[in-house]
């Protein structure tokens, strides 16, 4: 019941390292049954040796006895010399291998051989480096690359951010920061948690504690969209600040501004306020296991709640007041109502015009002229003639 096992293995990419000599290691994000997430690094030669031992342990499932019974995936042997090109092109195959591996029967996917291979080692936390040699180069695997090796991109330059205040981590998957620390951002999540690396340390950091080096403004932060996008609340939250909203699971709201710190400005009827983005799901989108797991994490801190924040920029980050959100949101709702009213009026006018045109098309016949006296005297009866005499 209490056995440790792996729920998911995700290939993030690879690193080009220069100590003790130039070599390549793959980066894996391993998700365990206790909801922890660990970053591990493995050379391909290690992975292949692990694969060979796994096949020896399960000869039937590896197809050694009957090839038709094979369920353990194939893995190509390492080349005589593994350079960057082969390391890069192999990513699709390796990502598919890991996906298949964790979905094998439990006797294979949860055996000690698999569990021990992907456990965190000391050199995963503190890789052996030399301060005189340049730091490793990181090459990330795009999320939509999947199995197609042609979709694998070249090097991605990681953005460097600066910590504006001290941050104490609250879980093993997070990373503590000191004010002034310079971190490389590996992944930005809409939840407000960013995966960062600092020298030999890696972990999740609240985006609220980071600022870009070139200026206080976040270029990724779009302008408010008062037309709104429809989202459904997946987890209830009770407001802790005056400008936050209290909502219950199942509520439908409109998102009018998506902020990088994971606190989005939303509108419920005519009320606006902040709400954790990790508790929201776009209307019509299917729920996923990853999204459900994310909601079990704590919400990231808001930028406005950080104490002793010290920026290196003279100008502070642009910030829209909650009153501005409310005022502009009311204006938009009012204009939307007026537009609907105008459309209704136009529809009524068009309908009236159509009715008038229909009535005109049904015109009455003209009244014939009254006959003359001579005509009446010649053609009408005696009684009629006496009436005009």
Automatic annotation (TrEMBL):
Cellular component aspect of the GO annotation: cytoplasm; NADPH oxidase complex
Entry's Gene Ontology molecular function annotations: phosphatidylinositol binding; superoxide-generating NADPH oxidase activator activity
Pfam families: NCF1_PBR_AIR, p47_phox_C, PX, SH3_1
Claim: Cytoplasm is one of the keywords in the record: yes
Matches recorded under PROSITE patterns: PX (PS50195), SH3 (PS50002)
InterPro entries, sorted: NADPH_Oxidase/PX-Domain, NCF1_C, NCF1_PBR/AIR, NCF1_SH3_1, NCF1_SH3_2, P47PHOX, PX_dom, PX_dom_sf
Compositionally biased spans, kind Basic residues: 310-319, 327-339
GO biological process: respiratory burst; superoxide anion generation
Keyword Repressor attached: no
Domain PX: 4-125
Residue intervals of the SH3 domain: 156-215, 226-285
Region feature (Disordered): 284-389
Record keywords, A-Z: Cytoplasm, Phosphoprotein, Repeat, SH3 domain
Compartments reported by the entry: Cytoplasm
Ranges annotated as biased composition (Basic and acidic residues): 287-296, 352-361
PANTHER family in the record: NEUTROPHIL CYTOSOL FACTOR 1-RELATED (PTHR15706:SF6), SH3 MULTIPLE DOMAIN (PTHR15706)
Protein name according to UniProt: NCF1 factor
Gene symbol of the encoding locus: Ncf1
